[in-house]
Amino acid sequence: AKAQGRNTLSFFEPEMQAHTSANAQLQSDLHRALERCELLLHYQPILDRKRRIIGVESLVRWQHPEMGMVSPARFIPVAEQCGLILPLGDWVLEQTCRQLVAWAAHASTAELFAAVNISARQLSQPDFVVKVLETVRRTGASPSRLKLELTESMFLLDVEGVIEKMAALKRHGIGFSLDDFGTGYSSLCYLQRLPLDRLKIDKSFVSDLPDNANSAAIGAAIIGLAHNLGLQVIAEGVENQEQWQFLLEGQCDAFQGYLFAPPLPVEELDRRLSLGSDQ
Ligand code: C2E
Ligand code: CA
Ligand code: CA
Ligand code: CA
User: Fold this and answer.
1) Of 3-17, 211-225, 249-263, which one has max mean pLDDT?
2) What is the pLDDT of residue 183?
3) What is the Cα–Cα distance from 24 to 46, expressed in whole angstroms?
4) Which positions carry the signal peptide feature in this UniProt record (predicted)?
5) Spatial separation of the C-alpha atoms in residues 119 and 86, rounded to whole Å
6) C-beta of residue 180 within 8 angstroms of C-beta of residue 198
7) Residues contacting residue 176 through CB under 8 Å, at least 6 positions apart
8) Cα(228)–Cα(141) distance, rounded to whole angstroms?
9) What is the rounded CA–CA span in Å between residue 90 and residue 108?
10) Separation of 249 CA from ligand 4 center, angstroms?
11) Above pLDDT 70, what percent of the chain?
């Protein structure tokens, strides 16, 4: 067993090293990306039951000079590990607030909310609340148009501290969604105590709808639970008509996914919104 263990180790070692050095390269590239403005935001529409766009989720994109578009699924974990998620997160928040101000000036976009993904590391900073409020004030964004998406990984933090921070921001009108619900460490007892407005059903459940009986049961249960707690439900990753129909019949409140629109550059989103208001 020992010999086998050694073999396994020597077999995996070069691969792990390659992975580590690829991450180190990515990390230094990301540092440069932040300085040279290689990051941009795309906005994915969130729709109500009547298929009207009510808001967007801000999703960061990285146009790497050699590698092309790098997926956030690849670089966000690296940024979280090395701490670059802090300046990156500040940038996403500021950029989104500026966009909210631009949208506030036009009738077809004035009512939109924008949701920003917040990583556990950002939330655990002692100055998180001050920083968010300061960004909102400096940019002139309306706090009630800003939503923050937290994941269940925040249950691993000091929960009392998290509740206090959320409550402080909520007093200023900023809303909260619990992202990727059903995939993490959720405890139903926390769910009741956190000042949340919305739950987002993770796309892994949505993708199996409606044929997978387990996902259908879980989806229906999440919607029922959320409504009983006074929370709205957003389904993410809605890709086809069958999923949309199932969720609609299940009284889901809002929807996001490729069936409606992928994450869009701001010009494309604005174009769709102004077309919508002409009709
Ligand atoms: P997420 O917060 O769960 O975001 C939803 C992801 O699902 C996005 O991937 C979106 O493009 C994708 N998506 C939307 N509709 C569909 C669909 O119908 N089908 C499928 N299969 N996928 C769909 P994206 O943009 O690649 O982002 C991946 C993750 O990276 C996000 O997952 C989020 O965890 C993280 N992320 C992105 N931007 C930020 C950011 O600014 N800050 C932080 N902390 N994390 C971010
Ligand atoms: Ca999200
Ligand atoms: Ca999500
Ligand atoms: Ca996700």
Assistant:
1) 249-263
2) 81
3) 35
4) none
5) 9
6) no
7) 147, 148, 149, 150, 166, 169, 170, 194, 195, 196, 197, 198
8) 32
9) 27
10) 24
11) 90
Q: Which residues line ligand 1 (CB under 6 A)?
A: 44, 59-60, 71-73, 76, 89, 92, 117, 119, 179-180, 203, 236-239, 256-258, 263
At 16, is the pLDDT very low, low, confident or very high (cuts 50, 70, 90)?
A: low
What ipTM was assigned to the predicted interfaces of this complex?
A: 0.98
Q: Which amino acid is at 208?
A: D
Mean pLDDT on 60-88 = 93
32-60 burial, b at 16+ Cβ within 10 Å, e below that, comes to ebbeeebbebbbbbbbeeeeebbbbbbbb
Please tell me the pTM assigned to this model.
0.92
* Cβ burial, residue 161 (10 Å; 0-12/13-18/19+): middle
Ligand 1 atom closest to Cα of residue 118: 44
